[in-house]
Amino acid sequence: MKQSIPLPVLERLSILYTVLERLEKEGRTAVSSAELGRIMNVTPHTIRKDINYFGQAGSESGYSVSTLRNTLEKGLRFDVSRKACIVGLGRMGLALMNFSGFKDSNIRIEAGFDSNINRLETLKTDIELYPAYEIPEVVKRKSIELGVITVPPEAAQQTADKLIQGGIKGIINFAPVIIQCDNPAIAIRNFYVLEEFRILSALIQI
Amino acid sequence: MKQSIPLPVLERLSILYTVLERLEKEGRTAVSSAELGRIMNVTPHTIRKDINYFGQAGSESGYSVSTLRNTLEKGLRFDVSRKACIVGLGRMGLALMNFSGFKDSNIRIEAGFDSNINRLETLKTDIELYPAYEIPEVVKRKSIELGVITVPPEAAQQTADKLIQGGIKGIINFAPVIIQCDNPAIAIRNFYVLEEFRILSALIQI
DNA sequence: TGAACGCTGTGAAATAATTCACAACTTAAT
DNA sequence: ATTAAGTTGTGAATTATTTCACAGCGTTCA
């Protein structure tokens, strides 16, 4: 990686990777920046600039689907397997735990946590479940790198603190709270459900 | 609204609104851009610039929490109630349908759709459920403005097409697919679960 | 009374991201 | 052979966004 990739670029490249996976599955071998642009609703220039963060990757007859997918996989380290855990086994947490998209990815859900011990006992799943107070210990012992927060807002910050205590490297937060974390090496991505509805509300015509 | 608000600003303002709701609930009456900046992890300048899209809103002793919340509510039209529907009643769809955050918001989930008729019958919920082929009719009849797509990827585009046919104004898409829509007035927000994990993978140190 | 501090609002500057334009090359077709 | 069409890679230009710097006002405290 020549240098740190801007976040907007990283976000697009990540989607591009998924697009390439699909094209490859469909048997496509070559694709141009123009076509990728149409698929992704961005200009071909953006596609090319984005890809060029990994140096030359195409030829005068476009990009090879498999080669490009491979370049992205290596460049973005999608080839390394990552262990993840989910804290908060409500409906959202369970939905994520059962998310089928992980199947042929390198993301492995290795543990689920909840503060309600009764809930832990009634759930039936292949994934190991633990009470919330064991987060730091389990995260550390199993070298879990990614954590998902799907707890009520009041518990979100303390959940993050426990994950961080265990040495977590990245967090996906679904609670409507801005997680405070002074360690800049820990990446945090937020998804605020209600905010998305509100943003749409503001965007659409009256 | 003096003019179209840039999307990054809109996204921050939407979060700011949630922050203000919390501060108000906690009994806080005044707050400065410096404090809001700390809470939201942005610079005070950004806070002030963002707020200024609605003209002057503060005084020399900071912002009034309730006044500012009100200004945003009016400016972003969070005060108008919006009807929404969810298509795809798998785990994710059901989790969103039961999301408690809608309670004191102006978002009303007015319908759920699924292509599996059996599933519709076994689900027990207060929200009206319909088979997927009725999407255009129901959306039109009930004047539903917002649609959530939580169907498998193969069905995502045709689901979007049906919503659009019914006159939907905004879409939140959870399927790992880039929805094609030639009407620029229809707003689309995507949330790609696996992408979020992959972005974290790329962001964190090896 | 007045000095010091803290605040917002905002034009200007700086930075970041996107888009453009075109050289250089390949392929296909005539 | 030659022309035409299509492609990438990339420096430059443009546009968008964020940050800075400070005027101007109010409040507090000496």
Provide a descriptive summary of the structure in words:
With 206 residues, chain A is α/β, with parallel strands linked by helices. Helices cover 44% and strands 16% of the residues of chain A. Chain A is built from nine helices and eight strands. In chain A, the strands form two sheets. A six-stranded parallel sheet of chain A has the order 5-4-3-6-7-8, with helices on both faces. Chain A has a two-stranded antiparallel ribbon with strand order 1-2. The first copy, chain A, is globular and about 60 Å long. The termini of chain A are far apart. The interface between A and B is large, with 59 and 59 residues. Chain A binds a DNA duplex (30 and 30 nucleotides) through helix 3.
Main sheet properties of chain A = 6 strands, parallel
Class from helix and strand fractions of chain A: alpha/beta
CATH topology call of the largest domain in chain A: Rossmann fold
Strand order of the largest sheet of chain A: 5-4-3-6-7-8
Q: Provide the CATH superfamily of the largest domain in chain A.
A: NAD(P)-binding Rossmann-like Domain
Radius of gyration of chain A: 20 Å
Form type of chain A: globular
Second CATH tier, the architecture of the largest domain in chain A: 3-Layer(aba) Sandwich
Q: Count the strands of chain A?
A: 8
Identify the notable features of this structure and list them briefly:
homodimer; 206 residues; 2 domains; six-stranded parallel β-sheet; two-stranded antiparallel ribbon; 9 helices; 8 strands; 44% helix; 16% strand; DNA-binding
